[in-house]
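Predicting holo structure, flavin-adenine dinucleotide bound.
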Amino acid sequence: MKSIQKPIVIVGAGFAGMTLALNLKNLNSSLPILVVDSESNFIFKPLMYEVLSKEIRSWEATPKFANIFSDAGITFLKNCLTKIYFKENILEFSDKLKLSYQYLVICTGSIPNSFTIKGVDENCYFFNDFGDLNKLESFLKKIQKTSFHKNLFIVGGGPSGIELACKIKDIFIDQFEINVIEKSNEILHRNKIFNREQAEKALEKRKINIILNSTVKEVSETKICIVNEFGITSLDKDIVIWTAGVKPNLSYLETNEITKRFGRILVNNNLQIENYKNCFAIGDISIIEGMEDLPITAQVAMQEGNHLAKNLELLIQGKDPLPFEFQDNGEMISLGIGEASISGLGVTLSGKLAFEARRLIYTSKLPNITESLKSASSWIFQKKSFFKKFFKKDNSI
Ligand SMILES: Cc1cc2nc3c(=O)[nH]c(=O)nc-3n(C[C@H](O)[C@H](O)[C@H](O)COP(=O)(O)OP(=O)(O)OC[C@H]3O[C@@H](n4cnc5c(N)ncnc54)[C@H](O)[C@@H]3O)c2cc1C
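Done. Tokens:
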């Protein structure tokens, strides 16, 4: 068996980095793997809506990296990457620590994209991590006490916007007049038809307004200004939640240092960065040449992490890496408290059953991270046999 001198460094331990590290360790337990993340806890982002609605507790969706990695025999370092010296194979961190690597994998995820629209950064709430969730929750609680029917706008009719709209309506009932603004002519336009139809029903049932074919021009302290075929309209707002898009989290890269496409790091189909064959980028920060249409999801990030683990093992053995292929295993969206919609692998399911299946599938995703979830949500597991159909190891929805 061949060995390597310096470690394989994985920066970012989200869905992509976590899957990669755990799978690589499973394939070859003797490899020196170092995982670095700027945070102490993993965030299971698809369950953030359930944390907001108190259907699960926050600690259940945020297991500690230190526990996950020490259980797996992987070294974890909490630090923030600030610079990569690609030619020298050296990383620099916020405390000026320098580390050299044999192989580098960057997977630092994404952050909200305000598209430089005036007032968005200053006057909108976001929903991308637990900091955003806590800020949003305290603001919603604070203003709900003042009076009924506050004007709440959610910008973006993608999964995040729709899931959030349904949850907030169910949590706060009639406290908010909820409006979803979407620039295209339908909500969830990149999602499965079945899920879109279920979402439309869920929104209608909750009397959530959908404003289609409209773009946001500006957000001020008191108004949101939208443009559509009828012209420019300025509406009173109490709160705007911005879910209109994300951009890669690449603050440690210098402009033009490596090739990008649509702002994301361009990799070949082996997930390698052009010109630096020992460096890889996976998850939300990267885009694969020839596969530009892949969605920016945890499902893709996990499949890339899984694939790269096999490729790294091949490379270390002196063999050729294999091209990545995406397998669409379907998608799940939550639609209010206790409801969801699932479409994939020839199965469609909605309502309460879909909600339970969704939670069950998520708790089964990464066995090593979900020990806490498993113990806390044992009721779900009592129903495991019922949902066998959805249970394949790689059913990464
Ligand atoms: C509310 C919400 C709900 C979602 N629901 C779904 C869903 O139902 N299904 C689905 O498939 N996808 C969903 N997604 C998308 C999914 O979460 C992302 O596509 C996925 O997290 C991407 O994985 P990643 O590993 O690329 O990034 P992330 O999971 O975001 O992980 C990035 C990691 O990098 C770390 N990091 C960042 N910068 C640095 C740095 N400079 N140094 C060190 N560490 C750093 C971060 O702390 C983080 O741990 C959802 C996203 C959100 C926000």
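The domain at 114-244 is CATH 3.50.50.60 (FAD/NAD(P)-binding domain).
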